[in-house]
Amino acid sequence: MTLTTMPRPATRTRDTATVTMKAFVYRGPGKKALEERPKPEITAATDAIVKIVKTTICGTDLHILKGDVPTCQPGRILGHEGVGIIDKIGPAVTAFKPGDHVLISCVSACGKCVYCRKQMYSHCTTGGWILGNSIDGTQAEFVRTPYADTSLYPIPEGADEEALVMLSDILPTGFECGVLNGKVQPGSTVAIVGSGPVGLAALLTAQFFSPAEIIMIDLDDNRLEVARRFGATTSINSADGKAVETVLKMTGERGVDTVIEAVGIPATFELCEKIVAPGGTIANVGVHGQKVALHLERLWDRNISITTRLVDTVTIPMLFRTVGSHRIDPKLLITHRFKLDHILDAYETFGNAAKTKALKVIIEA
Amino acid sequence: MTLTTMPRPATRTRDTATVTMKAFVYRGPGKKALEERPKPEITAATDAIVKIVKTTICGTDLHILKGDVPTCQPGRILGHEGVGIIDKIGPAVTAFKPGDHVLISCVSACGKCVYCRKQMYSHCTTGGWILGNSIDGTQAEFVRTPYADTSLYPIPEGADEEALVMLSDILPTGFECGVLNGKVQPGSTVAIVGSGPVGLAALLTAQFFSPAEIIMIDLDDNRLEVARRFGATTSINSADGKAVETVLKMTGERGVDTVIEAVGIPATFELCEKIVAPGGTIANVGVHGQKVALHLERLWDRNISITTRLVDTVTIPMLFRTVGSHRIDPKLLITHRFKLDHILDAYETFGNAAKTKALKVIIEA
Amino acid sequence: MTLTTMPRPATRTRDTATVTMKAFVYRGPGKKALEERPKPEITAATDAIVKIVKTTICGTDLHILKGDVPTCQPGRILGHEGVGIIDKIGPAVTAFKPGDHVLISCVSACGKCVYCRKQMYSHCTTGGWILGNSIDGTQAEFVRTPYADTSLYPIPEGADEEALVMLSDILPTGFECGVLNGKVQPGSTVAIVGSGPVGLAALLTAQFFSPAEIIMIDLDDNRLEVARRFGATTSINSADGKAVETVLKMTGERGVDTVIEAVGIPATFELCEKIVAPGGTIANVGVHGQKVALHLERLWDRNISITTRLVDTVTIPMLFRTVGSHRIDPKLLITHRFKLDHILDAYETFGNAAKTKALKVIIEA
Amino acid sequence: MTLTTMPRPATRTRDTATVTMKAFVYRGPGKKALEERPKPEITAATDAIVKIVKTTICGTDLHILKGDVPTCQPGRILGHEGVGIIDKIGPAVTAFKPGDHVLISCVSACGKCVYCRKQMYSHCTTGGWILGNSIDGTQAEFVRTPYADTSLYPIPEGADEEALVMLSDILPTGFECGVLNGKVQPGSTVAIVGSGPVGLAALLTAQFFSPAEIIMIDLDDNRLEVARRFGATTSINSADGKAVETVLKMTGERGVDTVIEAVGIPATFELCEKIVAPGGTIANVGVHGQKVALHLERLWDRNISITTRLVDTVTIPMLFRTVGSHRIDPKLLITHRFKLDHILDAYETFGNAAKTKALKVIIEA
């Protein structure tokens, strides 16, 4: 991987009149750079320009850097998470004004199309996950956010903005794709396969529904220890190949009510198939790059559900209220902090999580 | 009120061969007695005889004693809650055997009728709430429980049986009639009108769903203080007539998502009508003795729901698991303990809750 | 009631350049007029001007004319239903262009506020039912529709536009407030109290779910005969005071699963209370002008739900598809047709439905 | 396949005192026989002996005859569907008495276990699908039905009993596993892959919910013609490999909301994966003998659900009411009738459906 940092003048004053800005740019498979780029402009009446205060790095950004996301072309500013301050608004924006502090959803929602009308913002016909993908993103000093009225969320005075960065993507992903799709219930049993940031986000939000058991399964003892601190009632290191046996033994051979897949490979999905109870649900959160084997010869009569979902971020307002009332502490997920000038270090840290024990890293713009 | 205690021989040995037993009996409005009664016998193949270990007194028992419950005739042994040990089983009972420790549901369910088939056990065509009402109840040394297989629940070894007495009626009532019917959600706002035992049971179980706010409203400062200890985020003494104003101010004039009525008089129901938000729910738990005014001229266009429910106890297994996993501590509700010999004192204490600060009182048989 | 028709020049050419137009105007309690009014202009970027092709009269318009709707002040052009052709659009409108044929929802939805985000458009903080109420409506040659992108619906080429007028209000009202809130199910029993247009709309849309019985209750034999033609399996004229007895006898004393109140007075609401089965739902559709007596002393333990709702019109797209696939024929509701010039006759006909047998009257602009 | 008919005396009188009876017996892979067998006896207090009036053959019976169902051992009387008359009851049976006409569910439900308590009768810990599988079945003159009170359903006087045979298995299977799991809605689009009896049962019951489109996909033109008669709005013969293309074209490249898999092989399941719309559901009904490829690399972000289910027959009462109210005509599925003496012919006819055009065949005992 070739890391390139573009030279930038040392003495520039940074304010909203600045015409260029620092931005983290994907330069093709294995190539990335912190560059000087033109500050974004309003291009549609529903746009806002947001001055980024804090952003973060997502596992998906690592996929992009490997060249695995064809919709994201070289030259793109990455990043689809963050909090900031409204800098400018288009003429059709009514919910915000310059100076407002906002949370940026990773999903842009027009609010009008057939999918947005049923709150499936992830499939907005002109939006969805486009930030830091098919349009420039948030790992920069400024970002243009389309459909501002329905894609930004006001941050109340006094809120802990750093904590709220976790509401752009990771917490709604764990909650919507894992916990809600998985129908976690009071007294139910839950297994989460994968104790990375998104699995841990599912772990934190699963506790909203007071399940009796949350079993965390991973190969990394450090992450399992984190999971126990975050509320897992049991942790299983699956390296010895006995995870299925252990879960079935724990549950009287019945399996668990909700299995959340938070890895995205065939082996972990098949593990889920083996531990789901009759009547249970496998909620897939993982991003898969290849097909998996679905053992319908065993599952056709087991009354199970399997769900998939790209996060809609429709629960951001609900999550805001749970943070405000201290039902959850999103900062638990934050392990490291960097200035935007050192974002390449941030990527190094985040990309070597096994060694650095990084979960989410905050980038201050 | 005339309290009568029947004389009983001092030297009897109490065991399962005993042909008489102590029992608390309703003797007509204002009259009650601890009497010597024949030990119950199996009368249907699906019956069990349970030796009571611990029971408790319900607000409904006080209603019966006043003569307010016409289905309950003088001579009836009261009580519809408790834990015990199986003494005998009828020939059709397959789920239990003598010596098993069981929880007794306040609702007897045949498991076969149209209502039982949709889990509406409260309306079982030959069961429902009959224990301590139309048949003899649990405030005695032994009780005959109809439909044992579907009305008793096995107590796992090592469980705290005293805590489980709360699962016979009070916790499922608060949870099913209040919390589930009221659709409490993560981040939502809840108001509970009435901080007596059933309101507090709703308060404890509402927290399974992590609402942002739980506002407790009552006239008794002691009970409000208890509510705060049990997790209420706000408490309002409505004595000054400003409860509606306070709640609306707290919620930006919107009202609350879920209002749980746990008193049962017109004034408190109308209070609920005034504080429910558009799109919200009023979940009635209170036992009403007269009609209330429903202000449809204000509510017809507010998109609200009003629900009523006699507890089905269908959530007992779920509640068992939440207790087992320490998501809830039912013993918080227990304030006093008495021997069955002193059940008249127990009634005095429970009947004067304003003075004694009694919530639930345990009777040891 | 004083009917006033304003004089208008005979030779005017009517086209989109016209600066005045004909409009039906509320002139204070008991007063109405067909007047010449300025053609509306775009006042917000999200507005559209729609040239009305067909509109209709709602029972609510009669309430306004009596002076019962305080939000509607004299001088207001009435009407909140209709189909038309886009004449002009504001700069922020992206879903429509001039010439497009559209259906107008009776509810204006900004698509952005907390209520719109949960599809409760009726409570849109800046919209809701404002057309022909707090802003000028559709009983005119042109209407300004706010939030065009989220309040108008495209009419596909070749559709029967007259039939679609029924989708502006009456069909979604019967369907959302009555049928969906009432949880009509295959094989269930339904009673609809009130066989006026909205009751009949509930009757037509209830059949989407294949209930076993639909019992129609009214005082008007003609309307009951219409109901039988529209699919009611039983009709009951409640004039003899025996409706409750008849329904209970028909249902083995159990009552009906879904009761839809489509009148809006205390007597009919109390009838609903008497015929709802344990576990059933009373779905209120009627517009109530006073409180009703809710007999909680009988209902507190019946496990029922009562719902209220102002139509959200969120089901318009679904209803479009049911019309397109001939699952429902909305034209069954249309009994009379008038030109806009004769709208005063239309009001006479609609206002004397008992005599004229009018259900819905079409006004051609 | 070896067909064997056991000799039987010509002059026997058949009545309830008979100690032997005719029965259709599985004799090992490829072997079957109509034999004389002892009449069944009550073996548990909850049993009933039912004199079979009419039964039928299921596709599963063909699987058993091939040796594909290991739980079904040689010597077993097959059959899990039928109507009959109660001959004897065990001492714990309270809902029926000799002489009652009953429908037999294909699933035996104890009504007590954890699965029965949540209406998941298919997974009853001591029941489930055992009739004609692990215990003797209904293709005989008499059958012993376990858990009679919760596994038999009373047939009202005057009902068409032949039609009701379709409620033992085929209609609830299509309805529960296909239509309910598939969340068919008014105005929605449905595709059913497989136009055999179970696919057609899904087609008939899907119409309870008034979808806009029901697309039937099969390789057999005759069955597709039947499907059109039964209400399919479109039929597609997938032999040319263009079914996916056709469905996507019909739906504007979006796909269908509900896809019902009613075949049970990898190719048809993968077809379902290709035509499900974002937000849609694949409801598996087919009995699968091997794993399928689940293309999560395409589906992980499509917000879909996949469901599996062994029929619970929990909707039998609902289906009874839809038949009684003529919302559905189950007899449409019946193409042939045989006497029990000719059951081998019935199997020949049913087993060669492509040639005989058989759907369901009635066997009169």
Task: Give the helix/strand layout.
The structure is a homotetramer of 365-residue chains.
Chain A: E1 2-5, E2 20-26, E3 31-38, E4 48-56, H1 59-66, E5 82-89, E6 101-104, H2 114-117, E7 142-145, H3 148-151, E8 152-154, H4 161-164, H5 170-180, E9 189-193, H6 197-206, E10 213-218, H7 221-230, E11 234-237, H8 243-250, E12 256-261, H9 266-275, E13 276-284, E14 292-294, H10 296-299, E15 305-307, H11 316-324, E16 334-339, H12 343-351, H13 353-356, E17 360-364
Parallel strand pairs in A: 1-3, 9-10, 9-12, 10-11, 12-13, 13-15, 16-17
Antiparallel strand pairs in A: 2-3, 4-5, 4-7, 4-17, 5-6, 6-8
Helix pairs in contact in A: 5-6
Plain-language structure description:
Four copies of one chain form a homotetramer. By secondary structure, chain A is α/β, with parallel strands linked by helices. Chain A has 13 helices and 17 strands. The A-D interface holds A 115, 118, 120, 122-123, 264, 269, 278-279, 284, 286-297, 299-310, 312 and D 115, 118, 120, 122-123, 264, 269, 278-279, 284, 286-297, 299-310, 312. Strand 15 of chain A pairs antiparallel with strand 15 (305-307) of chain D, so a sheet runs across the interface.
